[in-house]
Amino acid sequence: MSKQQKKVKRVVIKIGSSSLTSMHGEISHKKLEKLTDQIVSLKDAGYETVLVSSGAVAAGYRKLGCLERPSSLPEKQAAASIGQGLLMESYSELFLSHGYVASQILITRGDFADKVRYTNMKNTLNMLLSRGIIPIINENDTVTVDRLKFGDNDTLSAKVAALIDADRLIILSDIDGLYSDNPRKNPHAKLVKKVHTITPEIEAAAGDSGSTVGTGGMKSKISAIKIAMASGINSFLGKAGTPDILMNALAGTAKGTYFELKPNAANLDNERQWIAFHSGPEGKIIISLEGRETLVNQQGDIEPGDVIKVSGSFHEGAVVRIYDENEKELGLGRMNCSSDWIDRESSENQEAVIIDQGSFVCFLDYRLPAQL
Fold it and tell me: What CATH number should be reported for the domain whose range is 271-366?
């Protein structure tokens, strides 16, 4: 039975900063209480839930003495160090009042890129869920530098959903779904109720958020949902604060946009999910057009004779970006040899496999986000 056909049990919920804070930029206890009440209803109904929650910077910057949301990195990180504690304290008290325990997990991109840490994180989350705990996840804003940032919690939530093989990703925002145009500017924009494939037209319809509190706009949400769909996970995008939005989203009756895979749609297995979304490519290889056809059409593996050029220094097992000789990016692949080996010995081992078909992720097949 496919993931699309089985009963939904494991749900990842993402909520943005603007949906958790007051008009003054501070944590809104009323909004938090409404959200936790809905999650409690899911738990009571037997769902395993993971919450990816923004709001640390928004919760902490006034306590830092800032009158407006800070723009400098040190101020943002200092505000996050204050706000994250306040946020978790509120969540913990609210969930405990209903008999549920919440846990905190702060993540950086490096936790996904390192295969050992990636596996440990997956095992920890599975253990928490098996014990009925509600993991609350946020990016570790206090220590993360720009080059290691996810950029927004939309992307983080999709990666977490793929990590734990979730059945559904629900992204709650300050807008009630994807529209044909920006509804704040075009009163004739229409809600797109269902999407089976994220096409260039769908991406073109995605505009930035009007919120000054959050970091992710509609484009980031569509990019995140691409990750979820490539991993075989159906998603929903709707407006936070709507009564019973979570339960209704799972029932298919909520107002919003449903991103649903077609039956028997291809998706990435766990190994290729890690290659595509988390690995952090270490180099680049350019292959011939003949090699391109072999790889893209799943007709075989890449051998030394297919390689035209190697850029960068990488070890055996590293993930590299793969281009054809016309500089068209094809995807990512895990190397069966090091860059030194290709330079030194490939001419004498023409039948060696450089990249096998099972370790290749084709961007053309899965319409993956361009930044991977």
Answer: 2.30.130.10
Q: Within a 10 A sphere around the Cβ of 26, how many other Cβ atoms?
A: 18
Cα dist. 273→9, 276, 358 in Å?
21, 5, 12
Task: Label residue 155 exposed, middle or buried (CB < 10 Å: 0-12, 13-18, 19+).
Answer: buried
**φ, ψ for residue 145 (rounded to 5)?**
-95, 165
**Residue range(s) occupied by CATH 2.30.130.10 in the chain:** 271-366
**C-alpha radius of gyration, the chain, whole number:** 22
Helix (H) or strand (E) run with residue 137 in it = strand 134-139
SS3 sequence of 149-189: CCCCHHHHHHHHHHHCCCCEEEEEECCCCCECCCCCCCCCC
In the chain, where does the domain assigned CATH 3.40.1160.10 lie?
10-267
Helix axes 73-96, 29-44, angle to 10 degrees: 50
Indicate if the alpha-carbon torsion angle 148, 151, 157, 163 is positive or negative: negative
> Any bridge partners for residue 139, and if so which?
107
Q: What is the pLDDT of residues 346-365, one digit of tens each?
A: 666 777 888 888 888 887 65
Please list the residues that pair with 171 across neighbouring strands: 14, 237
pTM recorded for the entire structure: 0.83
User: Which residue in 222, 169, 215 sits closest to 56, CA to CA?
Assistant: 215
Q: Which CATH class for the 10-267 domain?
A: alpha beta
Distance CA 319, CA 332 (A): 7
Of 180 and 161, the one with more pLDDT? 161
pLDDT, residue 4, reads 44
The residue length of the chain stands at 372
Average per-residue pLDDT for the chain? 85
Q: For residue 115, what are its two tokens? A: 């295969």
